[in-house]
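Hi all, posting the design record for the shared folder.

TITLE: backbone redesign
STEP: 1 of 1
STRUCTURE INPUT:
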């Protein structure tokens, strides 16, 4: 299987690196601004049209505002039977179908940055023309980058707000926890390790146990202990409602991009 990455920015690189490290695809090629941008075993291709013509699966990883231009550019060059996977926020499969043509199989995806290290979260949705086999192909490819779920396309903006943008929220939380540790006298590198591993471990427990976060929280919160005081401070600061508003704002922005 020949993979094409149209747009070799942060997201395109994360997908390419993950697929190269964890799958046995025959070739991964990418369009880059410079032929010097060759990245490991990724084959640089200067032309979007050339890339479309040699790819069995073509990932579109450009910015949302650029998708229409590149889709129209490659519309007559997409290999017959190829699968196009769009990772552009806010761009619907109907948009892509109008620009690429009705015969092209399209799957919409929203991966996130941790895909680079095999710990990503990707949601996929099938567009018109995409069969169960196409959806399975997309799922298998993204499974090499972490976890995968299938959703209705109407929910993709919500996905963008939670998992697409979510790593930035977590990095802010990790940074804040580490700053608190520094304030209390911990060396910065130790405070950051404590914060990051705590977030990593707590998240892993949710996934591995299947328990509701509230139940796990109660296990940590012993009567008259330290945790309840910290939780009350977070509630006073509006952390819960602030995070809900952050996800909602990002999802609304994603919808406007479309």
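Okay, here is what came back for every position:
SEQUENCE:
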């Amino acid at each position: 299987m020949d993979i094409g990455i149209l747009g070799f920015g942060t997201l395109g690189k994360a997908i390419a690196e993950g697929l190269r490290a964890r799958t046995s695809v025959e070739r991964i090629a990418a369009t880059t601004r410079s032929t010097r941008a060759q990245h490991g075993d990724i084959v640089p291709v200067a032309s979007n049209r050339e890339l479309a013509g040699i790819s069995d699966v073509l990932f579109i990883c450009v910015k949302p505002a650029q998708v229409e231009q590149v889709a129209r550019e490659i519309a007559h060059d997409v290999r017959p039977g190829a699968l196009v996977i769009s990772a552009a926020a806010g761009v619907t499969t109907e948009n892509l179908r109008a620009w690429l043509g009705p015969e092209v199989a399209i799957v919409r995806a929203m991966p996130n940055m941790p895909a680079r290290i095999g710990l990503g979260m990707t949601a996929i949705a099938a567009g018109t023309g995409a069969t169960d086999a196409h959806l399975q192909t997309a799922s298998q490819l993204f499974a090499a980058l972490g976890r995968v779920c299938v959703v209705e396309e109407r929910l993709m903006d919500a996905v963008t707000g939670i998992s697409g943008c979510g790593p930035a929220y977590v990095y802010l939380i990790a940074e804040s926890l580490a700053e608190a540790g520094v304030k209390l006298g911990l060396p910065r590198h130790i405070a950051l390790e404590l914060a990051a591993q705590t977030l990593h471990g707590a998240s892993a427990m949710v996934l591995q146990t299947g328990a509701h976060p509230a139940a796990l929280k109660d296990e940590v919160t012993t009567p008259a202990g330290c945790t309840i005081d910290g939780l009350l401070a977070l509630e006073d600061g509006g952390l819960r409602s602030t995070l809900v508003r952050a996800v909602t704002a990002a999802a609304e922005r994603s919808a406007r991009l479309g």
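COMMENT: The chain has two domains: 2-156, 166-257.
Let me know if anyone wants the other runs.
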